[in-house]
Amino acid sequence: MKLVLECVSQMLNDPKLFCQKAYISGEWVDASDDQVILVNNPFDESIIGSVPACKAIQVNDAIESAQSAQQDWARMSSIARSDVLAAWYELICQNQDDLARIMTLEQGKPLHEALSEIHYAASFVRWYGEEARRLSGHVMQPDGDHRVVVLKEAVGVTAAITPWNFPSAMVTRKVAPALAAGCAMIVKPSELTPFSALALAALAERAGVPPGLFSVVTGDAREIGEGLLKSSIVRKLSFTGSTAIGKYLMAQSADTVKRLTLELGGNAPLVVFNDADLDVAVDGIIASKFRNAGQTCVCTNRAYVQSEVYDEVCLKIAKKLEGIIVGNGLDPAVAIGPLINDMAVSKVKSHVEDALSRGARIVGDELTINGRVILPVLLADVPSDALIATEETFGPVLPLFRFETEQEVIQLANATPFGLAGYVFSRDVSRAWRVSEAFECGMVGINTGAISMASAPFGGIKHSGLGREGGSAGIEEYLEMKTLHFHL
Ligand code: SIN
Which of 19, 54, 183, 297 is catalytic? Predict the structure, then answer.
């Protein structure tokens, strides 16, 4: 294993960013019993390193130091907090190549995609650093001799459980607004991709984030999650991940009445009408479906194409997918990297086989699986009772469904308990507007497959979650209102 570790460090300009210890209370520590979790490269399953399997007692250490650090931090001026976040942003930008390389090694996504995730991650730090300076409460209109002032106060100690699919951006999307608002945050990163979060913590430390204010506790999700959930000091939890785990966390948070932000599963519909610019639609479909090998909550899961243009859209997509290079994310020619683990590969396989058994057909390359690397699959004539229509695939498979009318497709699009994102392609503004309003989801892409940016609210409805990240809404999740009533 040692040889492999040396190899990772040699790939970085700054080997110190490859941290194999947890960051708790401003210290880099091992697990209290020295146990570790091995982390592998999803492309070839080689071990790239290990992180401590922290114990409940270490979660408590993180919570206690977060509590004391938070009190000083919240008392600092918002300009001073903003300056620290600005320094962190600069360091992330300066070290973007190393951060991207670490991400590709542990997550698998191609290096160019990892780099764009680092830019996305940095944009949250920048945006919330700036937003820190604009926080304010409000004063109500006088009512006789009664005056009311609403203050905004930091929630306090907060926690985040972050996923493996965006190992950096989902950390900064939570930590940056928390810190900007005056909160402390303890992050439990996915066991599969802890190194990105640890590298961000190393840079936060260098930027002057006070010890204890931002900890990264690595280890078993259940053990660390329980410690965070049981604590009354932790006033809020932000989670990105599956709906099943989100529901569990919600139930477990009831006892301490924690605030929750939950960004959960999706089953995004994408609709192409006859009147769409088909080239724009096809680019939007490819961007939305195949980003991160299809392992994105807002990925198109079902593409509905109106009958008249169905065959043309299908051919155009097949042509774009021809010759796409899949493989090791470190290879600059690769456009799609491996899936995260064998379970993810099995799910893709079962969705494709199920669709084929119900009469769908593959256009272009057959299902080709090499380890965890899968060639993109285009499925045509998929019936609406296929598994892929109801379950999130989280892989590079694009099912095309045929539809006739606007009313029909709205019903199909909404026939899911999920409500994260939806996409519509049409040149008819009224139609695009009508369909966007009719979609039961939190975000709609109109003539675009890209809907993620730091300044815009991101989140879902129904079983896709609660609350919003990004934009002004994202910082409100870390602020409490306190209403002061004055009698003159
Ligand atoms: C996600 O898949 O959870 C996040 C995707 C994004 O922010 O674009």
Answer: 297
